[in-house]
Specification:
Keywords: Ribonucleoprotein, Ribosomal protein. GO terms for molecular function: structural constituent of ribosome. This is 30S ribosomal protein S3ae. This protein has 69 residues and is of the alpha+beta class. It has one domain. It contains 3 helices and 4 strands; from the N terminus they run αββαβαβ. The protein has a two-stranded antiparallel sheet with strand order 1-2. Strands 3-4 form a two-stranded antiparallel sheet. The protein is elongated, with a radius of gyration of 18 Å. 0% of the residues are buried.
Length: 69
Amino acid sequence: MVRKTRKIKDKWKEKRWVTVLAPDSFNNIPVAYVPITSDKTAVGRVVEVTLFDILKGDPSQHQYKLFFQ
């Protein structure tokens, strides 16, 4: 007897990408793009970036890490 094959559900097709913005003190620039499945999973997520990524070109700031929630 042949088993019925099931369709595999691709979890990446369900996800949508959300832009994470820095706070007002950093002029609300985009910090990261995060895949989420629902809005509840996005709240409370921590994004790690360096100060070099935010200031765009000051190489002396590459060792400082910032965590945004």
